[in-house]
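subagent[fold] <- orchestrator: predict structure for attached chain, return tokens only, no commentary.
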Amino acid sequence: MALQERTVGKDQGGQSGCRKACLVMLLVGVAAFAMLGILGIGLLSVVFGSDWKLRAGGYPEDERPRLRERWSYGSGTAKAVRLPLEGLIIHERKSGLLVPQFDRVEAVLRQIRAAAADVAVRGMLLEVQSPGGSVSACDEIREQLHRFREDGRRKVVVWVRGLAASGAYYIASEADWIVAQPGSLVGSIGVLLSALNWSQLGEKIGVTDVTVKSGRYKDLLNPFRGVSPEELQMLQAVVDSAHEMFVRHVAVGRKLELARVARIADGRIVTARRAEELGLVDEVGYWPLAARRLRELLGIEGLKVIRYEGSGGLLQLLAAAGRGLPFSSVEFTREPRLLFLWRP
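subagent[fold] -> orchestrator:
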């Protein structure tokens, strides 16, 4: 009898061990399947780009964005959107095996379009912390803000959290009111056009460039040759044209004389207090002051401030991961760009 009991106990232990092994194998299989699914999504994102997103139930960029609202501050029937404008303002699609395409400029534009499409939204609180970016990207955002408030019913208040330089200030000047935090920096009204030149280095190490071109200026700013005085004059005209546009928009947006803006549009950066004296901002203060000024501009007591979030899902999570990727200064200087940028 004792021998039989020992045999039964051994059989039960073997069955228990088999069940554990099967469970482990099942979990490994599920994990492997999930990883293959993620890799497949990443590959589809890389191979097909935005076209695949449309086929997978996404949306074209000119369609109303699928964004969820999240309460942020205050209460009332009228709504305002709290929108961050952070970092370098430049079209740069970050994509990879596990990260679908993400463009921070388009993300801001989609939020502005979503706010404009919502009749309950009366205002916007734009929180700025940026050194600026490319001329075209900054102008796109400024134009969308202009459309948002052009009927006069909606108002935009900017709160400068720490830095509103160059293109970021270009965008901020479109607002109805600007509040700058006491320790912030403002200004740097100006334009850059820069490129690396490796001609002397190439001569030293014996690297030559072979370029076949259809016109005299087709390889303008070729890094393997010098720039002639005539070419510099041509490029300066391009920069001056963008600079005139910058000065004009600031003068109109801030209701300042064009000559007054031109005098300080030399790229200088100033403190919040000095910016107030120059008329570049309206007040120095913190976020609650900006929210109060928006209520006053709208002439209402209660205001519910919301912020937008994506529609969720795996793609949204992967895109969110891509936002944390550092911006590569090597990539940024890889090609010549016309910039509204403060770059010390």
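orchestrator: received. Logging for downstream: Confidence is low (pLDDT under 50) at residues 1-10, 41-62, 313-333. The two ends are 89 Å apart (CA to CA).
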